[in-house]
UniProtKB/TrEMBL annotation:
SUPFAM superfamilies: Cytochrome P450, Six-hairpin glycosidases. Keywords: Glycoprotein, Glycosidase, Heme, Hydrolase, Iron, Membrane, Metal-binding, Monooxygenase, Oxidoreductase, Signal. This is mannan endo-1,6-alpha-mannosidase. It comes from Chaetomium fimeti. Its cofactor is heme. Transmembrane segments: none annotated. It comes from the Eukaryota.
Amino acid sequence: MSFYTGDERGGVPGLLPNPYYWWEAGALMGSLVDYWYYTGDTRWNDVAEEGLLFQVGPNDDYMPPNQTMTEGNDDQGFWGMAVMTAAENNFQNPPPDRPQWLALAQAVFNTQAARWEQQDCGGGLRWQIFPWNNGYNYKNSISQACFFNIAARLARYTGNQSYAEWADRTWDWMTATQLLSLETYYIYDGIHVENCSEITPYQWTYNAGAFLLGAAAMYNYSTSAAQAQTWHKRIDGLLNGSLIFFTGKNHNIMTEVACEPVDLCDLDQQSFKAYLSRWMAATTKWAPWTYDRIKPLLESSATAAVSTCTGGGNGRMCGLKWNTEKWDNNTGVGQQMAAMEVVLANTIQHSPSPVTDWEGGTSVGDPGAGGADIGRKTKVFPHVSTAERAGAYTAPQMGRRSRTAGRALRALNNHTLLDLYSSRFTSCGTTYYTIALGKWLLMTNEAENIKTILGTSMDDWPIDGPRLLSTLPVLGPDSIFTSNGEAWNRARSMLRPSFVRDQVADLQCFDRHIRNMLAAIPAEGATFDIQNLLFNMTMDSSTDFLLGSSTNLLTKASPEAQQFVRDFEYASRESAKKARLGPILYHLPHRKLQTAVRGLREYVRFYLKRAIAEKKEGGGKAKDRSYVFLDELLKAEPPEDYTVDQILSILIAGRDTTATAMSSVFYFLARNPSAVEKLRAEIGSVGEEAPTWEQLKHMKYLNNVIKEALRLFSPVATNSRTANKETVLPRGGGEDGTQPILVQKGTPVRWTSHGLHRNKDVFGPDADEFRPERWESDLRVRYVSSHHHHVRDAPPPLTASFSWEYIPFSGGPRICLGQQFALTQIAYTLFRFFGAFRAIEAQDSGPYLLRTNLTISFPYGCLVSVTRA
């Protein structure tokens, strides 16, 4: 531990100093867990816990932004295997508000499963995650080994067959490519995707060890005698193959044969023997018959390793070449880890067996973990404090694949997944095919195609795929957002009467909640998160409107209401994660999500039953307002679960989309004081504290501000449909993309309003800027009609011929039922807010970042301060 500086003043927890790389720091954390497991000595436990948690990254999946210039699948895999060991051995659990060991291992697995590629070499993981890193065109065995190892161990720990299927798939791919020879059980380094039959023939100890332990986990998991026999044979084969790494007079001393005899082991390779030692010992717990073969090899290797530990100023530094029985004048983290691991491995028979989820395991899992990074290949940098940035961005971990990475990192722009979509539309055209989770996906930002999908040929394009999977666990099968065809028509017909003008124009219910929000804003000049207040306010107002009983988050929420909101937000977030995992991993069980969904549905069911009882009693107790959505819904006497589905559907639409829309308006106004001045002037001209719906409707600049914010920040930024038959879209075919394009049955199509609304051909060269004046009635938008190849004047925005370039509330028959309700709430909030405050100022200079769940939001809030009127 004399090499580790992460626990020192100014150090970064979890990182090793230059020239060691990030992955080896993860391996070191795993060695500290091993040290405790074998010895019971807790002196390094807090250091290991801190390091393992500090490096998880913003999405808790070991993809920290400061490693995007170096991180490969193998790097991430070593951190994943370290936390898997922590879970299996009941290492001290993190605090409840931090990510847990099992969940972190699942997050690594989920992000890597999404990167599995069929198009190059018939499967496998690339070495690199990000296309700009050297080695992206290489599929190396250690990346497959880490993935196989984690999948197999997750199968054993959780008992879930899906993990085992991925382990089988990885094994089969390795043998099909002959990177793992079934004749010798040698494992070779890797292949380049340009020539999948040309194998790089080097063999490394850590490949053999990772596959050996994964095979032992699969043997231990086996659910039939035939499976157990298969894995028994494979374990024996891998053990035979690993004998190539034991040299010396009696062929019993571990050696890195590809580099050690010729003095060419680099910094990485100097540590590899640590992992073969670690995993050979662990194998004996899950495949007990191997103990008699493995223990003698570990004993002789440990004796040889200790004989080299005589160097350095303290006389305890170990060498690399154990065969020489003397220090070789070289030492480092790798040599020390290897010697420690092989010595500790000899006490394996005295150590407890690894636990499982149902037999002694205490670590909490999350099958949907890592969903926010599924498929990501872009650089993402979170908003961090100055102190964090100093630690993270100056960490000496930038040289493994690119020696200029430090300078390149500082020059990076901040991107989101939505920005990536936009840039690809620029480079690939408005309609193109891509691969997502191993399946063809058609991307389009062509207005004519969107019009066809949502409007003229809507029946050919039902809701399916990720869009359906993200909402189905929460809303149920009969929701207006999860149903198609006649079922959707029935739901819409039942809900439509609740959004007629009388209900939309009634501001009485909403007024109480905007007053509560204004009262919650802190003193003038104080920084606060207005997004958080808006989410609380819209939850209060939505539950009041829907159920006749508010959650009262802004005043004094009951414990039941607080739990309902926690369940609601957790279920929304986790269901979106599951959808991003793809159709296979989507079906992994998620007990916490199921519990949350039960909780929020029971909360709604309570008010439903109360309303039914009051109806039977002839009206029940008097209400403070005449209209409650639930009462109106019950006039049709729908089934109970059906009613709950619809209530939750409207709640998601009325709460989340409205809150994020409001947040965007305040985000842009806080950065545009001239727009605030114009807005306040228009509000002052009305001369009312509480305007009518008619007055709000005719406030042109206020409505232009809302339109412009929704253009740049649509709450539902991406949408999708799936073709239910072979069909045709009007644009995207031909060499120039202007011809019709054939779409096969089952093809998902995705579009983004985020990119569509920034089309400079439609909205002008300043389309990325917030400028409400572009919506003034005399504005003539000039844009290129891509299918007629000429420039023409467009009629004023939001006329019929313009509507498909601007779809913040979607379009066609499934256009949002509550759009006027939402727009009215936003307008009323702005009116009341700027009646009370004369200025709003941004207090966050961080980059413009978005988080995507069922809706988008600002991941770090919208920090502002205000000046009272």
